[in-house]
Design goal:
Length: 156
């Protein structure tokens, strides 16, 4: 009985894979008849869609940026403010250099589900840090941190 139900399920799945349209051809795959090809023509322009490679949102606001000197480089410590708590996957995302002497970071995080209230302003703080070696991009003299509501810039 169990095998019969399995076989019947497989047949139903395979039967749903190919349906025949009114032109006599198959609606899916390359098994359609030669008569159905080229009967409907349309022309359209491709939509200009800008795909963001990082699905995380910008942190709402950068409240402070602190540079801590260490041996061989600097630690960039960024604090952000949000309306609610619960942000995750927080990161400073380095953007490709445009050759203008600016080291650009985007302050990104995955936002929380709506409705998570934060009791204090400290609970709504978001922190991220990154180490920048003295040998990394020595031509860049300005550090820029971008959030959704503001951009903070520091000279190195």
């Amino acid at each position: 009985m169990k095998n019969f139900v399995s076989v019947l399920g497989c047949i139903a799945l395979l039967a749903g894979c190919s349906t025949v349209n009114s032109a006599g051809g198959s609606s899916g795959g390359s098994a359609g008849s030669a008569k159905s090809w080229g009967t409907k023509q349309s022309e359209s322009q491709p939509a200009a869609v800008e795909i963001d490679p990082d699905p995380r949102a910008f942190v709402p606001m950068v409240s402070s940026v602190v540079l801590n000197r260490t041996k061989g480089g600097v630690i960039i410590h960024v604090t952000g403010d949000a309306a609610q708590q619960g942000y995750s996957e927080v990161e400073l995302v380095l953007l490709p250099s445009e050759g203008d002497g600016v080291l650009q970071y985007q302050f990104r995080a995955t936002p929380p589900k709506p409705g998570i209230a934060a009791p204090t302003s400290r609970a709504r703080e978001i922190h991220a840090a990154v180490f920048l070696s003295d040998l990394d991009r020595p031509e860049d003299r300005t550090i820029s941190i971008e959030a959704s509501q503001n951009i903070k810039r520091l000279r190195r």
